[in-house]
Design goal:
This protein starts with 6 loop residues before the first helix and ends in a 5-residue tail after the last strand. The chain has helices at residues 7-20, 24-27, 50-60, 97-109, 127-130, 140-152, 157-165, 174-179, 212-221, 228-235, 260-273, 289-306, 334-346, 377-383, 388-393, 397-404, and strands spanning 41-46, 68-75, 86-90, 118-123, 183-189, 252-258, 277-285, 314-320, 352-358, 370-373, 407-408, 419-425. The strands form 2 sheets. A 6-stranded parallel beta sheet has the order 3-2-1-4-5-6, sandwiched between helices. It is 37% helix and 17% strand. It folds into 2 domains: 7-18 and 261-425, glycerate kinase, domain 1, CATH 3.40.1480; 24-258, 3-Layer(aba) Sandwich (Rossmann fold), CATH 3.40.50.10180. It contains 16 helices and 12 strands.
């Protein structure tokens, strides 16, 4: 690696290392089962990394390429060419007609299988929105209304996916049921706190520990009363998902091929090699982005002022998935909102720089992955006529950082291990 000349270059190198550690071309092959001696090999999948996972699978099983068939769906702009596996694109985070058609295509791929067949299911973050197959009584428009309400209310990913699972014909273990009696092996890249397979892409191939009652309570907790079709579907008989111990899932198994902690460790190694002491604060930080920013700012200030819990120069590294309750007219984006709140809390503290970005390359509805903060962020904003506090109140951090030239734009990375954050503290403590 070339010498790193600035905090910004170091933070970008750390982000790149975190993304590379979750690249399916590096991680997937080691988790593949032995090639089955007979039967069909059907590949289906969904998520922002689905195309990259499919291509890595084709490369790893080159000798059996003519035996592979299947379909995966990924977000618009995240497709990669594959030789045998069909790659479709659809909308994220609100499903669209293309996602509905792609999910029906996936279901047709696994219809009529036998016990000699193998289904490989490739899952990554974003799969919940891309797998659009509403239950009877609901249409695509209902699913879209519900998705927007859940995304805007501040619910965490577990709560959102609990609702999704009980209103889908594929989520919450139901895709595995559609594959029966074939053997089903899921290969997943985790984008959720705790690496819960039941939450990744809403767990389409694993038993669901949540209940329809849990789903109803989530909607009640956040005051979501529309669409009525969803409320009625959750009250209908047969809306429960398959539960742990269900014999219909006896021939299913799942493996994690990449997880956030691995990416944080890769970033820590880059910091260490550059002479900065890394401290990983956790891979599962949740809560409102602006509140998480205040907490991490407090830790950074403690380091800068008192050399605790680690002395600078240090790199405070964290992952997880925060949330944004959208109240203003901005585009949201949990990483840029985190960064704007962090800048306000740090108040220009000398020697403190930060980067926060989504490892999939897209933060919320904005074009950037995230943003960078430096000690002069607020001063430059004021000179540019930007009101940082008003921008935060309006959930308009994307525009704020774009105006400053501090947006981190990298395009789709073809993987997704959730958010990556680093705060560099080089301030001498007194």
């Amino acid at each position: 690696m070339a010498p790193i000349a600035s905090p910004r270059e170091l933070m970008r190198a750390m982000f790149d290392a975190a993304v590379a550690a979750a690249d399916p071309s590096r991680t997937l092959a080691a988790h593949l089962p032995p090639l089955p001696p007979a039967g069909r090999i059907v590949v289906v999948g969904a998520g922002k990394a689905a195309a990259a996972m499919a291509r890595a699978l084709e490369s790893a099983w080159e000798v059996a390429l003519d035996r592979l068939e299947g379909t995966v769906v990924t977000r618009y702009g995240h497709a990669l060419p594959c030789r045998r596996i069909e790659v479709l694109e659809a909308a994220h985070p609100v499903p669209d007609a293309a996602g509905l058609a792609a999910t029906e295509r996936l279901l047709s791929r696994v219809a009529g299988l036998t016990s000699d067949d193998l289904v490989l299911v490739l899952l990554s973050g974003g799969g919940s929105a891309l797998l659009a197959a509403p239950v009877a009584g609901m249409g695509l428009a209902d699913e879209q209304v519900l998705a927007r309400a859940l995304l805007a209310c501040g619910a965490d990913i577990g709560e959102i996916n609990c609702v999704r699972k009980h209103l889908s014909r594929v989520k919450g273990g139901r895709l595995a049921l559609a594959c029966s009696p074939a053997r089903v092996i899921t290969l997943a890249i985790s984008d959720v706190p705790g690496d819960e397979l039941t939450v990744i892409a809403s767990g389409p191939t694993v038993a669901d520990p949540t209940t329809v009652g849990d789903a109803r309570r989530v909607l009640a907790r956040y005051g979501i009363t529309e669409p009525r079709a969803a409320i009625e579907a959750l009250a209908a008989p047969g809306s429960e998902t398959p539960k742990p111990g269900d014999p219909a899932l006896a021939r299913t198994s799942a493996r994690l091929v990449a997880r956030p902690q691995q990416s944080l460790e890769a970033a820590a190694a880059v910091a260490r090699a550059a002479g900065w002491q890394p401290l990983i604060l956790g891979d599962s930080l949740e809560g409102e982005a602006r509140e998480a920013a205040r907490v991490l700012a407090g830790i950074a200030l403690q380091v800068a002022r008192h050399g605790q819990p680690v002395a600078g120069p240090c790199a405070l590294i964290s992952g997880g998935e925060t949330t944004v309750t959208v109240r203003g007219g901005g585009r949201g984006g949990r990483n840029v909102e985190f960064q704007l709140a962090l800048a306000l809390a740090l108040r220009g503290m000398p020697g403190v720089h930060a980067l926060a970005a989504d490892t999939d390359g897209i933060d919320g509805a904005g074009p950037a992955a995230g943003a960078l903060v430096s000690p002069d962020t607020l001063a430059r904003a004021q000179a540019a006529g930007l009101d940082a506090q008003a921008s935060l109140a309006a959930n308009d951090a994307h525009r704020f950082f774009e105006t400053l030239g501090d947006a981190l734009a990298c395009g789709p990375t073809h993987t997704n291990v959730n958010d990556f954050r680093v705060i560099l503290v080089d301030a001498p403590y007194r």
